[in-house]
């Protein structure tokens, strides 16, 4: 069944040579070839301010430049979020994007403030997170516990009802051979085709 897929390319660098961009494009290509409807956002090309207060988060308005992305996420069946691991986590620009987008009234409601109960507003959407990194992917998982990835899954996406969430990790990307890169791009294209 054709899906509405939103791709968030979270690399802060617009340079065409970045692997994350190539992976996002491969996924898009595969998804479109299989009839899925794709909206792709490169956050490096979106101008938006950093969120600075709880007041802005709770009562402020979304920056206009982010409205298309928020609307698309609201209408999506499946999200694909790609980013390079920077200092053990997602790049600050992607975190700033998510802080702006996943605000109350869009992503969740405080149903019972006294008990701290929330209504998750983005249920029914699945996600895939794709992370590239300099270290071996197994080292990130087993030695570093993949903390930042778990935080994205549990504290941001899971918190607002998004699931199931799948992961693809590519390690040692700076020393990857052209053949390995081609294999990764083919994998992304296949995932795109299956909308997974
Ligand atoms: C500011 C910065 C911080 C980085 N921190 C890490 C890190 O903590 N762990 C790691 O394995 N790689 C780290 N790297 C390597 C990147 O993850 C790697 O260059 C990137 O995934 C390559 O993908 P790209 O071509 O899309 O940029 C860092 C790179 C930069 C520029």
Query: What is the subunit arrangement here?
Result: single chain
Give start-end ranges of low-pLDDT stretches. none
Task: Evaluate the radius of gyration.
Answer: 17 Å
Shape: globular
CATH superfamily: Flavodoxin domain
> What percentage of the residues does DSSP assign to strands (E)?
15-25%
Major sheet: 5 strands, parallel
What do we call the CATH topology? Rossmann fold
Describe this structure in words.
With 196 residues, the protein is α/β, with parallel strands linked by helices. The protein has one domain: Rossmann fold. Helices cover 38% and strands 21% of the residues. The chain contains 7 helices and 7 strands, in the order E-H-E-H-H-E-H-E-E-E-H-H-E-H. The strands form 2 sheets. Strands 2-1-3-6-7 form a 5-stranded parallel beta sheet, sandwiched between helices. Helix 1 (19-33) runs parallel beside helix 7. The radius of gyration is 17 Å and the shape is globular. The mean pLDDT is 96. It binds flavin mononucleotide. Flavin mononucleotide binds at residues 11, 18-20, 84-88, 132-135, 173-174.
SSE blueprint and pairings:
Blueprint: E1 4-9, H1 19-33, E2 37-42, H2 54-59, H3 67-75, E3 78-84, H4 92-101, E4 108-112, E5 117-120, E6 126-132, H5 137-142, H6 147-157, E7 165-170, H7 178-194
Parallel strand pairs: 1-2, 1-3, 3-6, 6-7
Antiparallel strand pairs: 4-5
Helix pairs in contact: 1-7
The structure holds flavin mononucleotide.
The site of flavin mononucleotide has 15 residues, from helix 1.
